[in-house]
Amino acid sequence: MSTQGSAAQDVGTVVIGAGQAGLVMGYHLQRAGEDFVILEAAPRVGDSWRRRYDSLKLFSLPRYASLPGWRIPLRGFPTRDEMADYLEAYARRFELPVRSGEPVRRVAHDGGRFRVETDTATYLADRVVVSSGAHMRPVVPAFAAQLDPGVRQIHSLDYREPGQLAPGGVLVVGAGNSGTDVALEAAAAGHPTWIAGRHPGQVPFDIDAAPSRAVVPVVMFVFRHVLTRRTPMGRRFMAKADGHGVMLVRNKLADLDEAGVVQIGRIELVVAGRAVSSDDVVPDVSTVVWCTGSRPDHRFLGLPAAFDEDGRPLHDRGVSPVPGLYFLGLDLQYAVASSMIQGVDRDARHLLRRMRASGPARREVPESVPVRAGR
Questions:
Q1: What are the residues whose beta carbons fall under 8 Å from the beta carbon of 96, sequence distance 6 or more?
Q2: 118 and 172 co-located in one domain
Q3: DSSP letter string over 92-149?
Q4: Considering only CA atoms, which of 20, 38, 24, 43 is closest in space to residue 350?
């Protein structure tokens, strides 16, 4: 539906995306008495989690996976659906102004402000916070098109469960957390399975074992406070991790060996329709699952000055060189934890401070906006 000719709605800040980052930003904007709206493309809050693979379980216990103001009412590691339902309940609990089913089609300048267009409405805003997710567009190597047409290809963003795999062998390309999850599921379902790619390292303990929970606070502290852009160690780690993901957390190499998953080198080319690894292995497979990464989808931003020559957002800890534009939830935005649940709260508070320092939005609501206390 076109929005041309409809009256634009005036608002101080538009937050794009109602995932964990957008909800945290909304929580802090509400506490600060700001006038704002959160636009969510999906029909329901939490759908970004519901679209992930069925067996997904978080690496973080409720203490670290909770958003500010309200702890997840669970004891163990939340599952995919539990996290989705928590986000939906969080938005209701704090009465955040989420407008679901409103995908943003374009953001452009309009008389010194931002014009934000969806399928059904237009907003004029002083500020825009882009929190639409760091993993929206699949990344697949160009040579994927050379695979035999009979080989089924699935990207990890589209993978849900082993029933999607064709009978026969399975090649998982990418040895990170999602890749090892898929490989272990494929092997458990009876498929001969290969996993290709550089091993990213692994957390040296079992996070599901009770004794390991004493170590988790140390790991979380390192992710949030040590591996940041302010520390030499953090900058070195990020330079190595950029485009490769972080180390394995729940899965271990020993788990792959025990399951019979064959580990091979990187897939670098396709010969006669078959993938060939850097160590000259040519697995006989009927399915390839590309766990080769993903990137944000910012095609709606009609603001060329917001991006570098490679199309990546330019920002200083989430603050764009375009006045009034902000990003939240990007990979490695400030710390390794920035795209994780435990990292977005600090980044959102930083953005709010930078917003307030640059002057108030034109529209504000009274300071007495109620925010329900968390338990």
A1: 18, 23, 26, 27, 30, 38, 90
A2: no
A3: HHTT--EEET--EEEEEEETTEEEEEESS-EEEEEEEEE-S-S--EE---GGGGGS-T
A4: 24
Residue with tokens 């199309």: 311
Same domain, 153 and 132: no
Range of the domain at 130: 9-136+296-357
Query: Distance between CA 227 and CA 238 in Å, rounded?
Result: 8
Q: How many CB atoms lie within 10 A of CB 105?
A: 16
- For residue 368, give the amino acid letter: S
Q: How many CB atoms lie within 10 A of CB 13?
A: 25
The model's pTM: 0.88
Nearby residues of 164 by Cβ (< 8 Å), 6 or more positions away: 154
Asked if residue 67 belongs to a domain, the reply is yes
Residues 6+ away with beta carbon under 8 Å from 113 = 124, 125, 126, 324
CA separation for the pair 101, 116 (Å, rounded): 15
Question: Is beta strand 170-173 parallel, antiparallel or unpaired with respect to 152-155?
Answer: unpaired
For residue 279, count CB atoms less than 10 angstroms from its CB and return exposed for 0-12, middle for 13-18, buried for 19 or more. Answer: exposed
- pLDDT (tens place) for every residue of the chain, 375 residues total: 445 556 899 999 999 999 999 999 999 999 999 999 999 999 999 999 999 999 999 988 888 899 999 999 998 899 999 999 999 999 999 999 999 999 999 999 998 999 999 999 999 999 999 999 878 889 999 999 999 999 999 999 999 999 999 999 999 999 999 999 999 999 999 999 999 998 888 888 888 887 777 787 787 788 888 888 889 998 888 887 765 566 888 999 999 999 999 999 999 999 999 999 999 999 999 999 999 988 889 999 999 999 999 889 999 999 999 999 999 999 888 888 888 888 899 999 999 999 999 877 655 443 333 333 332
